[in-house]
Amino acid sequence: MSNFFPGNVDELIGWFRNYVTVATVNMATLKLSQEEIDALTANLAALETAQTKVISNKAIAKQSTEQRDNVKKSCIIDIRDTSKLIQANKNIPSDLIEALGLPKHDTTPSHEMPNQPTRLQVEGLDVDVNILDWDRNNNKQSTQYIIEAKYLADEQFVVIDTVTATKYQHNGQKAGVAVYYRITPRRGRLVGIPSETVGIYTG
C-alpha cells in the first residue's frame, strides 16, 4: 500500500504539522479526543527534536572528518618528506628501513614485469570515503600501485594516487555517484596489467 504522506523526514514533519493543526481545530467534527490530539502533538514534537539532533550530529561529524583529514594530510606530507631522505641514504641498513615500515633498498632491481593485482575490493563508508583493498599477487614490497578512478560521466580513468601499500582510503566521495576503480602495478619503468575494474555506487 502506497503511503499518502511524504517519505522524506523534513517533508513529513511539515505535512504532519499541518495534519495536527487541522485536526486540533476540527477535533469535534473529526470525533478525536483531547488525548488523541495530545498524542499526535507529542509525536510531532519528538520527531522534530530527533531530526534536529540528526542534523546537528551530521554537522559535527562533517567538521570532525574535515579536521581529521587535514591532520592526515599533514602527517602524510611529513612521512613522505622524511621517508624520501631516509630512502635516499644508501648507508642506512635495510633492516632499519624495513623496521620503519618502508620498502627495503632494492640492491638487485628486478627487470621482471610486475604481476597483476588481484581480488580488488571496494567498500563505501557513510562519511564520503571509499576503502580499496587488493592482493599484491606475489609482487615485491617495493612495487608501486597506481590507483585510477573513473566516474560514470568520464570516458577515461584518471590517476588519483600511487602507493606501495595494498590498501587505500579515497576521501571526498559524493553520495549517489557511481565510481569505478582499477589498480595498475609498476616497478621502475615496467607497468603491469591493471587489476579487474570494480565499481561502487556511493550513498
Structure description:
It contains four helices and eight strands. With 203 residues, the protein is of the alpha+beta class. Strands 3, 4, 6, 7 and 8 form a five-stranded antiparallel sheet that branches. β3 and β4 form a beta hairpin. The longest helix has 55 residues. It is elongated and about 90 Å long. The two termini are 26 Å apart. The mean pLDDT is 87.
How would you summarize what this structure contains?
The protein has 203 residues and is α+β, with helices and mostly antiparallel strands.
List its traits.
4 helices; five-stranded antiparallel sheet; 203 residues; elongated; alpha+beta
Structural class: alpha+beta
What form results from the Cα inertia axes?
A: elongated
Share of helical residues: 40-55%
Q: In angstroms, what is the radius of gyration?
A: 27 Å
Mean pLDDT: 87
Annotation, overall tally of beta strands = 8
Question: In oligomeric terms, what are we looking at?
Answer: single chain
Instruction: Supply the number of helical segments.
Output: 4
* Measured distance between first and last alpha carbons: 26 Å
Helix/strand order: HHHHEEEEEEEE
Q: How would a textbook summarize the main sheet? A: 5 strands, antiparallel
* Low-pLDDT stretches: none
Percent of residues in beta strands: 15-25%
List the helices and strands and how they pair.
Layout: H1 9-25, H2 27-30, H3 34-88, H4 94-99, E1 118-125, E2 129-135, E3 144-151, E4 158-163, E5 167-171, E6 178-187, E7 190-191, E8 198-201
Helix pairs in contact: 1-3
